[in-house]
Amino acid sequence: MCGIIGISALPGSLPEPLGRVIRRCLERLEYRGYDSAGIAVVNGEALIVRKGKGKISELAVKLKFDLLDGVSGIGHTRWATHGKPSDSNAHPHLDCLEKIAVVHNGIISNYLELKQRLEAQGHTFRSETDTEVIAHLVEEYVRQGLDLLDAFRKAVCELDGTYAIAMISVLDPCKVYFARKTSPLIVGLCSGFNIVASDIPALLEYTSSVIVLHDGELGYITPTEVYIERDGVPVSWRDRVRTITWSLEMATKGGYPHFMLKEIHEQPLALTNTLTGLDLDTVRSVCRLLDRTDRVFITGAGTSYHAGLVGEYLLTELCGLDAHTFIASEYRKYMNIADENSVLIAISQSGETIDTLMAVRSLRKTGCKVIAISNVIDSTIPRESDHVVYTRAGPEIGVAATKTFTTQILTLTVIALELARMRERLSSTEYSKLLTSLKEIPRLVEQILRIHEIKAKVLARYIKDRQNMYYLGRGLGVPIAMEGALKLKEIAYIHAEAYPAGESKHGPIALVESGFPVVFVVLDDYYVDSTVSNIMEMRARDAYVITLCPVKYAQKLSRLSDFLFELPNIDYRLAPIPYIIPLQLLAYYTSVMRGLDPDKPRNLAKTVTVE
Ligand code: M6R
pLDDT tens-digit profile of 264-277? Predict the structure, then answer.
């Protein structure tokens, strides 16, 4: 939520004027929020600020971001928490004398108390945001005689809550000050300039060398220097420099109209890279840990939670583990039953989702070991876990998770297969057969994309005018139904609910009337007959039945369906990955046909770093 950027540059070192570079970096962070945006630069004696409500592309034209120049600058793209989206609430925020400008991602939970104190000291506030207190606090300590670094440090010490902060000032023109607690922040090392940013895509055009800042660290960058401290003590960072392997092209649309469509199409490659790039030593240590455990908890939010549900099913069925998945923000009750004999698998593409992080921190306190599955190297959740298995999906910019979902499932499937073999619950023939089929999945996904994209487009014409929809499945079809419904809801704004198909007759069916779309995900032989009964019940109420099923059931189910996706015959335990693809495409095309921007759904942000 919210993307921040700060750049300190020697004159002539940037390929373009500072304002333009900051604007381009902000565009790559816009997936983190797009309620408002703004840039501030220090140019000579002046602090110049341009900001407003709206998307970066519109504001860049209106406010002429690209013409701004200077030696240091900061930028912000906002997902509103405190104060509605408006010009005055847009960041950067200033002190009274307009010498200090601050951008912030996170929530300052004690801002009201700080604001009251500062107002009593004579400070005047111009916004409803929590962020503005930071600028006034620093101003206050400078007024009391501290230099800028001491004032910044003292101000940061007073903040409760979460923050990634970048600050510039005419009092020290070349420096960009920064601080981090919980909200992500990285430093990009460049030649003649340095950058701080919320996330890697912002930097890819300029550098692949980054330092991931840790909680509690603060410091500053100049064009040639990086200073980091913790608890007032300088931190040596040289051995923390990481080389990012993501390319700039990965973070651009590459000819597709939207990131989401590009990312859907990248799945064959993302799956192949994840499978071939898995660190098998880590997978085996994870399996050994799971093998010794009494109980496995799995957690995540949104799409990652749905991947967790698939993982639960596989670990239970293939490995005989006592596994239970919970929504990350509901971690509290699990603190009572987790202990040193349990293991938590925390799934998060970004590695920064606060709900998942809180679950990790809380369960760890019980002695429970944590295995993270994440797409972002060195992000907070992996760093705070005992083991990490990385997916290799590449950067995912579209707010709707697609390729990270399928790579998370792939990773969980590999773990489940390895553990099942270790526990001798799969014979080596069965294991080899499943592994061979798993390796075939990228090709199957490619085939589904080729055959079913056009069908999804046709179906979207019908769906775009509906207001409600059900997604039903049984067994492993349930999380796929849930994920399909979430995709449609979040990018097409159509109310979509998912249920285990058997549950539909215990209430949900009351809403069904002529033409009501109901998607059935059929992927397991065991459930075909019972699902057919549910389809018949829906048909009897004139529902519009959409079925996803293996080719082998196509004949049987085509008679009962208004629309059919015939999908490859594959062992049902491996089916979740290929079976979600048509539902991702359906959501995408429905969104586009409704005139929406699937990459930037309203009220959402890619990485949710507030509770
Ligand atoms: O980065 P994470 O995987 O932790 O993110 C979790 C959710 O916020 C995320 O999956 C969200 O639900 C997506 N918008 C779904 O498409």
Answer: 999 999 999 999 98
